[in-house]
Every structure is written in C-alpha cells, then in structure tokens.
Amino acid sequence: MFEDKFSDRTKNIEASEIREVLKVTEKPEVISFAGGLPAPELFPVEEIKIACEAVLTEAGSDALQYSTTEGYTPLREAIAQRLKDIGIETAIDQLLMIGGSQQGLDLTGKLLLNDHDTVICESPTYLAAINAFKVYNASFVEVETDEEGMNMEKLEKALQAHPQAKFIYTIPDFQNPTGRTLSLARRKKMVALANQYNILIVEDNPYGAIRFAGEALPPVKHFDTEDRVIYLSTFSKIFSPGLRLGWICANEVFINKFVQLKQAADLHTDSFAQRLTAKYLELFDLDAHIEKIKAVYRMRRQTMIQCIERFFPMQVQHSSPEGGLFIWVELPESVDARAVFDICIQNNVAFVPGEAFFPNQGKRNTLRLNYSNMSEEKITEGMRRLGTVLTSILGDNVANF
Amino acid sequence: MFEDKFSDRTKNIEASEIREVLKVTEKPEVISFAGGLPAPELFPVEEIKIACEAVLTEAGSDALQYSTTEGYTPLREAIAQRLKDIGIETAIDQLLMIGGSQQGLDLTGKLLLNDHDTVICESPTYLAAINAFKVYNASFVEVETDEEGMNMEKLEKALQAHPQAKFIYTIPDFQNPTGRTLSLARRKKMVALANQYNILIVEDNPYGAIRFAGEALPPVKHFDTEDRVIYLSTFSKIFSPGLRLGWICANEVFINKFVQLKQAADLHTDSFAQRLTAKYLELFDLDAHIEKIKAVYRMRRQTMIQCIERFFPMQVQHSSPEGGLFIWVELPESVDARAVFDICIQNNVAFVPGEAFFPNQGKRNTLRLNYSNMSEEKITEGMRRLGTVLTSILGDNVANF
C-alpha cells in the first residue's frame, strides 16, 4: 500500500535486521552487551535540575522561543574553548549546533553525496553512519583496520582506485564497533593523503573524551592544514544523550551550507537543551564529571577483559580499547556469530553480531560487546554465560584454526 | 573552495535572499511584522519549571538517556487523545515524535521525493516547506488560492496535468503566509480528488488550535478514507517552539518508514523535552493555556485589521484570518513589495515581501504581516508607519488599478 509512492532512496533502506534481532535482548532475564548506552547512574541529574531552574529563572521565555539555526552563542563559545583544549583552533563561526552527532552524519550525507558517490570508511564501521549515508545512496569502500586503526597503505590504494570518492569517514578514537584508536602517525598520514588526493575527511568523535588509559592523541582535525576535515562531536557520552546535542566544526564554507540544510531540516536544535547545557558548563565542572565516567568505565572495561581471558576459549581474539564503550571480538573464521547469538539468547546473554558493521560484506565471525551500561557483577555473570556458550561451540577443538 | 565536492541538491539551495533581507529588520528601532514568532510573554515558564523539576525527580536519569525513535509513549498517548478531540481517530502506532513539524517536511521529502518529482501546493505557500522539498530537487505546481483556500477546480486540472505528482502539500488552517482557511466543502473535495487521482496529501497543521473566530473545521485527515493523508503538527504555536517538538500522524506503512529515516537522521527527538511536555500536559491544562493565547492574538489581529482600514490606501487588499499568526496583503499589481520594503526600512517598519512564498514565479505585489509577536500599541505604530509609506507610493492615484 502506497509503497509505489516511496522514493528510490527509501526503497534502499531495509528494515534493519539487527534491530529485529536486538528486540529479543530486551527481556529482563537477558544480560545484554548489545546496546551502546552510557551509564545512566552517572548522569548529573541534580545538577541538571539546578541548571533548568537557573535557565528558566534567568532567561525565562527566551529559553523557550525559536532561536538561530547556528545555535546558542555561549554554548558554542564554551565548545570552541573545549576544542582548543584538545588541539582544534576554532571560532564560533565554524561551529553549528545539531541534534546529536548523528544529525551531523545526515547533514554531511546531504551536503556531499550524490547518488552512488563513494564513501571510504573503516572496516568495520559505525552502523548508523552506514544507514545515514545509505539514505543518500552512497557506495562504500571499506579499508582494513588493525589495532592502530585504518591501514594507511590500504587507504592510499583505495584513494587511487576511487579518485572521485567524496570523503573518508573515520572514528579515530575508541571506534564503534572495535574500540580501536588511530595511531598518531596514521592521523598525520591520513591528512597528508587527503591533501594529496584532494578528498575530504569526516571525523566522528563521540568517544574521544572518555580515555581511561594511554596517552591522549590530538584529533585528526588538529593536523588539518587545508580545512578538509569536517569534525563531529556530541555531549551524548559525556553529559546526556537524551538531550540530543552535538556539533559540527568545519570551515565556514561548509558551515554556511550546513546551516541552510539544517534550517530546512528542523529550523534549529532545541533552545532549552542548549541553554541548560551552557548553564551546566557555567555552574559545574564537566571535566570533573568526565573523570567520574572514566573511572567507572575503566573498571568495567577491565572486568570485561579479565572475563574474556578467564572464560573465553583461547582462540578468540579481542581488541583492547583505551577508552570508549566497546570491545570487538573475533571468533575463529569458521564460526558464525549470528548462530552464536541465537544460542546465547537461549542462555540469556546478548551482543551485536559483527556483520552489520560492514557496509559491503560482513565478517560473520565477529561481534561487539558494550561494557559501559552495567555493573561489574553483571558483566562478570554475562561474560561467564557467553564464555560457556563459546566453549561449548569451540571446545578444545583448535584444529580448524 | 570545496564547492566542487557539494552534492547537486546542495547547489540547488541558494542562500535565501529573504534571510539576508530580513537581517535589516533586527535593528531595535525597526517595528518588524516580518517574523513568525509566537508571543513569548505567554510561554508557561513557571509551569515548565515545575514540569522540569517533576520529571527529573520522578524519572531521573531515564529522562536523560537515549530513548526510542518513535517517541515517549505517554506523550504520544496524550497527542492521540488531542487528535481524537479534533476528529482524527488514531493510535500511538500511527504517531512519530519529531523535532518540530519542520522535520516532518524534511522526512516527507526524504520518504517520497525522487529528483524532479512534483509537489502540488497552494500558491503562495510556506517558505520553509519550499526549501525542505527543494533539498530533494522537487518541482512545484502551484494551485491558486482564494479566501476559501486552494481552488478545487484548479487542483483537479493540476492533477490531470501531472498524474505522477507525489503529493498535495496543504496548510488548511490559517495558512502561512495568507492566513486563509480551506473551507469544509473543499476539504471533502480535496480528499475525494486525492482518492480519484491516487495521490497523497501532506497536511501541515501548526496553527489549527489557534482559532479565535468562526467555527472550527475538522482537519483534512478527518475525511481521509484511504489513509492517504500524512498529518503534521507541533507544540510550537501552543506551548513552546524552542523545544522543537512536533509529530507525524499517518498510516503505519508510512510511520514505519519514517521511523527508519528519523533513526538515520538523528536517532530520536530530545527525551527530556518530550517528558517535560508530557508532564506539563499531566499537571496543567493546555487548553486553558491555548485560550489565553487566542484571546491575545484575537486582539492583535483585530488591531492590525483596524489599522489596515484606517491607515492603508483603499486599493490595498488583505486577508481576514480567523486564527493563526498572519495577514496577507495584496498591493495593486504594478507595485513591487520589495521596493516598498526598502522604503519601509528607511521608515523603521518591516514585513516579508510576498514573492518568496511562491516557489515558481512570485506575485511581487504581495506581502505578509505577522501580528502575534508584539503589543497592540506597537502594532498600531508600525501600521501607521507602513500606511504612510503605502499612501506616499499609491497616493490617490487609483487610475492604474
């Protein structure tokens, strides 16, 4: 009924199989490592209450009225300062407030992608970025990743093979789904290659502030000598995801067009959410709050890694993230994680089968685990269940691998 | 710089001339009828303060976490009840919460429009709808309107001439920019024509609740026998526009696809804004609040009409809205409202020249006036200035008209 009226782009978008799969993880008896939610018990509820009260008392109706598409100036000023602190020199004219960094992906697709344009991305990459770009009928060229992120030799080959590719999409810090971080040398190399091959970079950085081990690396945009990097970030992982507040930082040429597209898309981002976040930043110490998040996630990540070592068969590989929310697991090549998932659900434990994170052809022996959203006790119990399933499948039979 | 990387759709979107024009209206000495803002002094600031406090106390971190794309269930239930009250029988599965009804226009374009698909619309029509659909490279067929809204004979001719047109876009109640309302007979006829010619209808109803004269008419969707109407509405004009809260009401076939597109666009609408609005609806009486808005707008509209009769030359025509925020003015055909605007700015009064509201070829002798956003005193003074300018241009010289 009416499907014949749908646009071609809509027909490209299938109901996400993964979404259906994950519905079974919502049963209360299931310990689910499938989500990607921040720990809600860390949300600064009381501080936000104070910020709401202060905004409505001080700004009154201004906080509830239509506002500019660009975003609330004091908030953009605070973000510009925070970006400066991590090595991005910017000004508020280069910042646009958006409805979470997901909207940055949609607007980037809108701004840059014609039908069948090529996006070069990490393999695997963020599922909802794949979906955002698919809306604009993108083609994907996947570049292999290892523990240091995207392989630069492979990237150069991809650039040579696809000279018309529109942009490189990268999540350099604690990538979703792998948890891996692009090394310093590769960050510099990525920018050099972008300059050489005249391609843009879309740097998606939702997790960068959540580093609990190792040394912080400057964003790719820090090395951007030709304003080729469109940088996306968000308050979702460090403050509150429900408020849907993110930003785009890019050269004014991009921002001016983004503003036009944002205006046509939804006029502007929630004024009240912007003001209460600015007020929170004024009254409280976000960095101290982030330290609390990091301390908790550090322990949860450590617990999960310890459980892998303790409960999983030896032939299972895993990433060792220094921050963020996720660990990536590779099973022996002959094992289908989707089949493992079905057995796990019988045993009340869940994860995301990795296949969905590959835009072209998935590695079916992979899976993603989230550790940010539950207690260490629950992590240990869930991992014990998962380990039992994996051991029952893999046994001591390492001959195949 | 990098413009060669932009998508074709982006190249279609010019920097809005009107936006540049309106920048001069922001000077404090200018009395501007150019905006479209609700009266901020009527926003229920204290009630919203109480709702925020209650939500954060009762729901705590749940109000700040990621939530479902479809939207907060108690809010959708309350909206379903409100829709029932105006003649739309619906259920929450037919409702999607969005970031203001503007996002509904963007998602509708995304869902339905291939390049060069035709949208049939009122002439003139809402500027930001034109922009939203232009992003998807729409073509527009304008149908003449009169005091009863879109002309149905002309609509039928348009449907015959454009059998592949994707949808009819209509703002039946107190249209932006004309303030006109589609008559009851024409509402029925529009649905009958849509059925006959197998076309969809996008009904945009941001102003319907703000009726301060005449009798309320059921929405076009009330007469929708074949689920062809995609209905958009919002809390912007009756509660707070800054919160960016609107909804789509449509058959599940549409909603399911809208959910996928919304998820790719920005995951979901601000959870906190949804919850505080639901809490407001629970604790307070929105309809009583709307009565206050109506009482104020009724007086402002009356003042503006009286000023037209008192200060404007006789040959100037105007609409007589029974609700909403706008009055439409037609000058004699030889007069260019853009030139009038320039003189008005010298005299510290402003409006929107009407040309921008015509997607194809504008009637340059038209203009839009907003009365919702200022006191009666200010309206009177601004209209006096505007009348002086118009009299100086038109004088007693009616010979041309």
UniProtKB/TrEMBL annotation, chains A, B:
Signal peptide: none annotated. Pfam families: Aminotran_1_2. The keyword Transferase applies. GO terms for molecular function: pyridoxal phosphate binding; transaminase activity. Residues 54-386 form the Aminotransferase class I/classII large domain. It comes from the Bacteria. Keywords: Aminotransferase, Pyridoxal phosphate, Transferase. One of its GO terms (biological process) is alpha-amino acid metabolic process. Belongs to the class-I pyridoxal-phosphate-dependent aminotransferase family. PANTHER family: AMINOTRANSFERASE (PTHR42790), KYNURENINE_ALPHA-AMINOADIPATE AMINOTRANSFERASE, MITOCHONDRIAL (PTHR42790:SF19). Homodimer. This is Aminotransferase.
